[in-house]
Amino acid sequence: MKILYAALDQRVPGTTGGSVHVTAVAEGLAERGHEVLVLTTRGAGRFPEGRVGWEALGPPLGLKYLRAFRAARVEAFARRFGADVVIERYYNFGGEGMLAARATGALGVLEVNAPVVDYPGSPKIWLDRALLVEPLRRWRERQCALAGLIVSPTASILPPGLPTDRIVEIEWGADTDRFTPTATGPLPFAPRPGTVTAVFAGAFRSWHGTALLARAARSLRAWGRTDVRVVFVGDGPELPRIRRAVSDLDTVIVTGAIPHAQMPACLAAADIGVAPFDVGAHAPLQIAFYWSPLKIFEYMAAGLPVVAPALDRLAHIVRHGHEGLTYAAAEPDGLARALARLAGDAALRARLGRAARARVEREFSWAAHCARLEHAILDALAGRRT
To answer: What residue ranges in the chain does DSSP mark as E strands?
Structure first.
């Protein structure tokens, strides 16, 4: 197949989950023998080398709100490339890929990683009501209607009434060749013998729960647990606040952002992976925990036991006592107690870490993701021919 992948508002190369996702899916489909061309914003540096073709095409003026105005350009690429399939990363103001697929007769695959439906109290609801004809809702639903296939971690964020045979639920994944328990390379923190390192890696946004982890680190220190070291890796709007919150703790390290290429070694040097999501800090999570958490899959691939709140989908990915420990999100010291339990039991950490690695290899690798995606696309194409 010839697959055109429209991810105009992502940056490649880049360090965000979206950038990693686009690169992994494009390369994974190319590894399966398909010809893949990606349209995306060029990040800092050259596009990755290999089997995938890359073209620099960002939204007009760099504003993702204007993405749909690139429909003619995307259609032109699709025609020159001879695309059989056009994949588009969903965005409320997108649709350029689905329009191009309709114009060229290609199969449109809409990749939905954020809610299409509005959460209660959403500003978009009020704006739509003020405009009377609800243009935002209508356009979101139009994008879904144009798609021959919709790929999402959970169908709960899609509009009701869509044909179920056009929806495939697939989790994100990890590169299990690069993320391993034995990965080596430069580290953003120095090893400290006699301590257990719990790492958070990701975006510092309020709903990622870094403030909750900072509070847990303070509780551990107050309990005299100087053997537990907490390392924060990444960047985002909450980073300055976290730096201030832990500035007096000698058991905490804040590294800032590092290149994604250094993450495998960073995780392999840790003992516990922490994903302290705070759903109360992000209103759209009223709908459901819709993320497919890249950090958790990479922790698991690195052989780390994972500590996370016991939220619906998270509790399925990280099963308590199997791949990690989960805690009640409403329990004030739940996170700190889970960390303390793991820190004090090396055998438990080893058992959970081995199970996490085995499960991510079976179910949550990018190779598994792309195999399921390919199968769904081929089924959708076959259905069009019958």
So the answer is: 2-12, 35-42, 53-56, 85-89, 107-111, 149-152, 167-169, 196-203, 228-235, 252-256, 272-274, 306-309, 324-327
